[in-house]
Amino acid sequence: MNNILNHIGIENYIFLSVILFCIGVFGVLYRRNAIIVFMSIEIMLNAVNLLFVAFSTYHQDAQGQVFVFFSMAVAAAEVAVGLAILVSIFRNLGSITIDNLKNLKG
Amino acid sequence: MNTNIALVLVLAPFLGFLINVFFGKSLGKSLSGIIGTLSVIVSFIATAYFFSGIAAQPEGIRISLFDWIQISNFNVDFGFQLDQLSILWLLFVTGIGSLIHLYSISYMHDDENMHKFFAYLNLFIFFMITLVIGSNLLVLFIGWEGVGLCSYLLIGFWHKNQEYNDAAKKAFIMNRIGDLGLLVGIFILGNLFSTLDYATLKTAMSGPISIFDYWMISLAAFALFIGACGKSAQIPLYTWLPDAMAGPTPVSALIHAATMVTAGIFMITRLNFLFDLTPDVQSIIAVVGAVTALVAATIGLVQNDIKKVLAYSTVSQLGLMFLALGLGAYEVAVFHVITHAFFKACLFLGSGSVIHALHGEQDMRNMGGLKKAMPITFATMLIASLAISGVPLFSGFFSKDEILLVAFHHNIPLWVVASVASIMTAFYMFRLMFLTFFQEFRGTAEQKHHLHESPSLITIPLIVLAILATIGGLISLPGNSWLNHYLIPILPKLATAEHHLGITEYILMAIAVVGGLVGIGMAYAKYIKQNTVPTEDAEITGFSKVLYNKYYVDEIYDAIFVKPINFLSRFFRDTVETGLSALVFGFGKVTNEISYQGKKIQNGSIGLYLFVFVLGLCAIVSYLFLAQ
Amino acid sequence: MSTILIIFCVLAAITLATAFLTIFSKNPIHSAIYLVICFFSIAGHYLLLNSQFLAIVHIIVYSGAIMILFLFTIMLMNLNEEREVHRPRITRLGAIVSFCLICLVLIAIFINSKPIVGEYVTTGEDYQSIKVLGKILLNEYMVPFEFASILLLVAMIGTVLLSKKEKLQK
What we know:
The complex is a heterotrimer of chains A (106), B (628) and C (170). Chain A has 106 residues and is mainly alpha-helical. Chain A has one domain (5-99): Helix Hairpins. Chain A has helices at 5-8, 10-30, 34-59, 63-93. Chain A is elongated, with a radius of gyration of 18 Å. Chain B is mostly helical and 628 residues long. Chain B is built from 25 helices and two strands. The model of chain B has no long low-confidence stretch (mean pLDDT 87). With 170 residues, chain C is mainly alpha-helical. Among the domains of chain C are: 1-82, Up-down Bundle (Four Helix Bundle (Hemerythrin (Met), subunit A)), CATH 1.20.120.1200; 129-164. Chain C has helices spanning 3-24, 28-48, 52-76, 89-112, 130-139, 142-163. Classes of the chains: A mainly alpha (106), B mainly alpha (628), C mainly alpha (170). The interface between A and C is large, with 74 and 83 residues. Chain A: NDH-1 is composed of 14 different subunits. Subunits NuoA, H, J, K, L, M, N constitute the membrane sector of the complex. Chain A: It is a multi-pass membrane protein.
């Protein structure tokens, strides 16, 4: 049987992943709401996961998918802790805008 | 065996120093004094032991304690050389030293820091022994520096008086200037011959010498002579000695009459083979010595402080010794050193006795008529004055006469200068005697009431020294000199020298004696017959004023050296230092400014931080993947 | 244009569109919903690439857990349609600049490495079914597997601690 990539071509996946990643970066820098920033980070992570799986198919090797597995575990943990921190900030400061988080200055 | 006794000789005074420094306060005054004196007496006994054995072993005893410096072919060991010269010096250093220690037990009895005084005295004796007993120039230098240090400590002993501290500093600094010369000389010798050992230097210099080496050796000899000038108070480094009279009288007697100031003469005699090779330097030494003798004698003519007269007398006599050294007559200088030690120490101790009886009065204008109240002091000082004036059959007559003889045979002008200095010596010494002991007492009634002879611990050393001043001349009678015979291993030329007594010698002796008697007679005429008393300070005028102010030499030194150096220091402190510190601080300030501007990057806004993340990521990634 | 390619394009379009809309919608809840749809489309991509296990796990973890967390947090903070603070022009410019920059860099890297990408081979064996994945995970990657569990434990503890209400000052 043929590699599915014969039909799609690996470069398409690469472009998709890259553009998705860049959308994520743009989102992080453009929005001021911390929750949206978090979501943009998730978009970035997903872009990378997609690329890993595509290359796993390219190389016919399962190691790419194993890495995705762990990446997802880490992402889950990170979201949990990040949101907990966000909630604390909301409790202390009353708003989520990252413009207010300016105290770490030189 | 010899090593052990030598070590006892050297270390006994040091042990005395340690005991007195650490336990002196708790031991009490008498005990600390006794320990101090005993340690020096132990050294004297050890010296006597070596002296008795030197006849059987004329080449001397050389003891090497340990190897000190070993750099390629330059080796210096820490060793002792006990030959005729060092044993002779040690005899009178420890001998007179023990007498003065005995004297100090009574003299310093009222002082609360008596244990410290004995500690310093013992330390001084230790360093002086080290200076004399060393087998090479470096050990001599250790002792040289050490006696300078002890001189400073002892001159400034009554440290609560700022003037005494200044005098001590002056002595030390002038000594240091001389020490620079000594060091330069040592360096040159070490460079030329790769050794500083006396014996090795002697053999090295007995070979052929090239022209270049001759100039270097002359330079070394001159530098060493400058060192001797500093230590033995010759022109131009003599002004510290009269000021050093600020110390207690035993100090003046020991250090500034009998021992430390003779270190220069010792060094030159030790290195006689070096100076014999450089007649130019020898001429300089002779001239400096003669001029010093004359100048100091003129200053001594009008001084009113009893100790200052004796100080200038010391400078003058040292000048005569250097005159002898400069003319190549080392044995004559050594003879005069010994006799001078006896009568000068006696004079100083006697003056100390007088000062003690008058409770600190040192101005001769307030003394007088003391011979009835203090007979022993009077008698001993009279004997010493007769000796220093060159009255026949006392020791000073023989030694001074030898110097004048040698001067006449080499250089008539120098003989004239030395003779004039001797006449003046007789004059001012007897001026001192007449003003102090004759006529009526000019002090307060209170002092007159308390006049009495000093206790026996003070008078016994005086008597011993007076006896030595009388018979001391016997060691070197003209024509049959035990001293010359004794010193042959050190000064080989003595073996072949002839010493005949012809008509010239007798006539010269007669001229010297007459000169001395003339001096005594003039003093008698002025101060007994005419009954003059020196005037108050404010009323001195004319040339006497110049003499009284010591030719204003101190003021000249101050203007030439001290003021410019002070100006230079102020300049450095105000201009150069502020500039440099501004430069150094400037670096700090610049860094501060840069960091202050750099701090503004971190303004806390997360957006900016994230933006910079992305930029950095792009940069790294493009470098890793695109730039290859 | 084979079927597979069409499916890929549709899925890609959905992914990019929803990602874009996530960033640009005003209401955070709308953003969250768009993101869920995005995740579903990525799961579709995984299915297209024949990694079924990963697709299911992706849906469970991301859409099922993470987005629910997000939604709850948004509702906890009562974030409705809100006015964004006026963004200074420089930040918008910075964002656009960085977007273009990073896009350019990454595509440039790809184009640079194009010759390296060769033929698409297929081994014919099964390399990514659950069976094989499980074998690999629990044989070679045993230690990271265990560490991942510890990581999740630590995250849980951290979250609980961080969310506690502070005691009131006396």
